[in-house]
Specification:
START-like_dom_sf, START_lipid-bd_dom, STAR4 protein, Alpha-D-Glucose-1,6-Bisphosphate, Chain A, domain 4, 4 helices, alpha+beta, StAR-like, 26% helix, lipid-binding
């Protein structure tokens, strides 16, 4: 088990990585799934042998409220159907923490429940916010769970110029589920999970 890294350099590196992903040209992405709520693209990840996914959709709410529902905190468990538990293990500053969370089984339990320990950081970006994270090798792995690993991930949320009560939410996700899994099953699950994330989030914000 590694010791906890110093939060400031990790946060800075993580932010820079996400901003770089955000500037990748449209031509490098391939559409993986399209729904009324979001479009999901993918490209080969630079971090591991799977894909970096990009998801984007317009959400009818203000930036701060949307990000409060996504980042670690009491809202997330209420609406995210994939997340089954979440504990904040360490808090560094108001916008930096280490959390441990578990996810439900997927695809008729071909993908068994997973556990993740992530460093999470939320910061301003343009007129909106960026909330991002990366997994750490920290804490004991609980029985009955496979420990997954999130390579740099994040959500950019910025108000629409002509309609500030709506926000453009763009996510970058690259999750290494680990364990013995067919890659095709993982890819199917990732595209659907990201599309569902938007529809679930929209329902939660309307409450």
């Amino acid at each position: 088990m590694d010791p906890l890294p110093s939060p400031a350099p990790l946060a800075s590196k993580l932010r820079n990585t996400l901003v770089r992903y955000h500037s990748i040209g449209d031509g490098e992405w391939r559409v993986a799934k399209k729904t009324k709520d979001a479009t999901v693209w993918r490209k080969p990840s630079e971090e591991f042998s799977g894909y970096l996914y990009k998801a984007q959709g317009v959400v009818e709410d203000v930036t701060n409220r949307i990000v409060d529902h996504i980042r670690p905190g009491p809202y997330r468990l209420d609406w995210d159907s994939l997340m089954t538990s979440m504990d904040i293990m360490e808090t560094f500053e108001e916008n930096c923490c280490v959390m441990r969370y578990t996810t439900a089984g997927q695809l008729w339990n071909i993908i068994a429940p997973r556990e993740f320990v992530d460093f999470s950081y939320t910061t301003s970006y343009e007129d909106g916010l960026l909330t991002c994270g990366i997994s750490l090798d920290y804490g004991e792995v609980r029985p009955n769970f496979v420990r997954g690993f999130n390579h740099p991930c994040g959500w950019f949320c910025v108000p629409l110029k002509d309609s500030p009560s709506h926000s453009l939410l763009t996510g970058y996700i690259q999750t290494e589920l680990r364990g013995m899994l067919p890659q095709s099953a993982v890819d199917t699950a990732m595209s659907s999970t990201l599309a569902n994330f938007y529809s679930d989030l929209k329902k939660a914000l309307k409450k």
